[in-house]
């Protein structure tokens, strides 16, 4: 991704001849200097996906002008589309429970300037990491979740998220299952890290399941949250080799490194508008 | 593994103090020069596993003498054990259907001297690879399998295997499900390569399943065949990265490379007596 | 890559606004259905690279017509460019010495239909693999190389390559250093597999070097041959984990699997016109 | 590694018959329950390496008693040896410059209880990370290094290290070359993370070197520091795939993830007494 200010156009539409020509003609007409351009034709579904990064300074229109001028083309081809401006930092709300490795890792990346986002707040069902979060200058909300108050708790989470005008919610080992309503309301905006190589070992205690089955690799999966637990579109996955000498605590420890890396990578793809979904599959323009 | 002639002792038994001392004392007494020694204490199951490679020339007894002398120790600790002599090449029977990449790969390794075994015969339910096999100087048996003749066909396979005095049967993409009887009779002696990262995508058409689920890595699993399909103890696994641009034929093609490598590696571990099983898990002394 | 007949346009040129627009407009005008499209803007060198796959049946011109019609655009932007027709199979000449694993692997892929090329001949400085090659129905040339006859031997190789109207020469563990002249005359058309992770361990006996240095991973590199030994543009690389228990023969054995895979992958990229070079670096449109 | 208190015996000596018997007999005699046992016979150098983990509660002697009782055996075989008690936490001093990712990662692992050590202090040639370190409750020393004060600065570092009675010094992207004296005085106790796959790209700016050479994988190496820059015994290495679209800042970013993981893994091996060196090579009992 270019370090200079840029617009990122992403779109998908039914495939047909002339899409690239129409879009690139549009960009060239307005003097748009393309720094990165990716597209994918899904033959099976006859659908076309595209992502264009354009230097903002080179383009003759501002963001609104871009949208207005592009709308007729989008209509013509029946596009799902959006344009992002890198000058507007994305806003990320992190949810965590009692394991801090993913939270810590995201905060470290943010503090080191690797993750260029706003983090308006961190929400947790435990008060454990208040100090860590507040030391980073970030607001911490303790929203307990009990069997009786689930509805209320999730309403509170949703309210905090909306109030923060956040773009994406990251479940950084948040050990609660969100309500179906919430999954639907924020579809494509909630990212989870699951500690197994999905679809293997979905549900609870995946490292225990992996140990019992005697697999020789363990993994982690970063995916969008949908109503069906651990079934959402996969953004990224990775694995690490283990062997018979590794106990369950060893798997947990190895797994943490994979979880951190895969979550950070998947989140980055999302933040840079590299992920387009279609049904339950993703196109990730690396 | 030492290139010189050696004995390989493998054993497992309930864990207790003094096992290593007893075994190593026994080996030292007979002047056994240990070139490789591995052991593993499974805390959860309180079971101990061991593998010792001893230079045959250094040891004062021959194979029979070794066994006789070791038997009392084995009895004392309640060991499951065996001793192999590297001078006796293992005998491998390969089963194949209509995809040759694994067969070809095994034959190439054998011809190049990498795989030091006897291959008394190759058995197939199709006649397709007769020439390939026979050019290598190996007997080819065509044993057709139809819905009506399954029992007879498997009896024929078992007969050929027994007649060949073979040690291990390799299902090199043999697209038939063996009978429960056969799985039981040859437990721990039939090795299969499944074209997915088990337990994900067991059963048929795993690459299609992987494509539909939208995973970002595909894999292969080498395992012992048991009565339950794709549920046997796993010897080795590996994966390769894919992305949205890969069609199902691409997955099939990438997968072949993983299948070949994982099968060859798993088979090698088995042939070198590196694999010990306990329940549905394996100890693999790499 | 599409399985249907297609044209593949590859080009590079100084970067400027309007390249994508001009090319895609050209393709759309002639009704070209794009199945795969990749491009890359090299900011450091201000150079633009592109690869387009177009369904041949959809395009209104034949290959000659394509070239004629595209030439003015190419001139305008100062492009290095070419168009390939998938109906014309590429012709591959393989050179080998006394280690057959890469040769065997390529033949197996070719026989299984994975590698859709013509193999007019295999050339070797030893007669060892004549039978293997001829069994596959391929001509085998024995061209001995001695300290005294190098010039003559390489002239003979070049002659056989030209006579075969071959597109690419694959050094499949060919243990001779080609002459500078030959490297220059066939620049970008000779692919080598080096058995180390370059630039580490260039030159002879890389596995020995790796063992002495005590590295924890070994690798292989597929690259174009240039006058400077092991310094040509890298197409692909991979590594495998080793540890202290692995002897030099073990490294050699593990390495073979990496060499086979990396060579096959790099060759495939080349054959599908996915590799564009600029100076000593490659753009590989996977 | 067992979570219960244990003794770890590590040794190496010229190889001969009877070493394992002598050691295991010794352990059994004192009722030592072995939870992990590894050994390696280096055929080339005729040297034997061993590591034994014994439950402290099972063993009839305390640490001193262990040492006294074992000394005669060690003498007999000419062993280099040591015994560690897991109840005595190792003491780690971290050195850092202006890039915090490795420091942050180590602190996070320490805070989460994954890294069970004492960190008496962090030393830096810059004051940048004082707050971060002090928030963790760890002493921070700012020891500036200028061309004129090098000797004095390193003397100060050595003094702080000694004063802290530290076991190991970790150069977590410490961008200063230590003096030859210091490397010698603390041989085997200083661990560095180098941001390349050594021996490729030793010295400065390895990511720039990697970019210029056009490699397809980048890596990191954790090694002991010796007088010769980047030439010390390698503990661990890893790589990550890159491609033409990755700029130097991208390589730097990907590289950080590898550096963190490899350093944490290498340090862990060291802390658990899993690393034995012989000349410039390491035996790492994973």
UniProtKB/TrEMBL annotation, chains A, B, C, D:
EC numbers for this chain: 3.5.1.10
Any Pfam family hit: Formyl_trans_N
Pathway: Purine metabolism; IMP biosynthesis via de novo pathway; formate from 10-formyl-5,6,7,8-tetrahydrofolate: step 1/1
GO-annotated molecular function: formyltetrahydrofolate deformylase activity
Function: Catalyzes the hydrolysis of 10-formyltetrahydrofolate (formyl-FH4) to formate and tetrahydrofolate (FH4).
Residue ranges occupied by any Formyl transferase N-terminal domain in the UniProt entry: 90-265
InterPro entries noted in UniProt: ACT-like_dom_sf (IPR045865), Formyl-FH4-Hydrolase_C (IPR041729), Formyl_transf_N (IPR002376), Formyl_transf_N_sf (IPR036477), PurU (IPR004810), PurU_ACT (IPR044074)
Name of this protein: Formyltetrahydrofolate deformylase
Entry keyword annotation includes Hydrolase: yes
GO biological process, any: one-carbon metabolic process
Gene: purU
HAMAP family: PurU
Active site, UniProt feature: 230
Family membership noted in the UniProt record: Belongs to the PurU family.
UniProt keyword Hydrolase present: yes
Native source organism of the sequence: Caballeronia mineralivorans PML1(12)
Domain of life according to the entry: Bacteria
Gene3D superfamilies assigned to the protein according to its UniProt record, in alphabetical order: 3.30.70.260, Formyl transferase, N-terminal domain
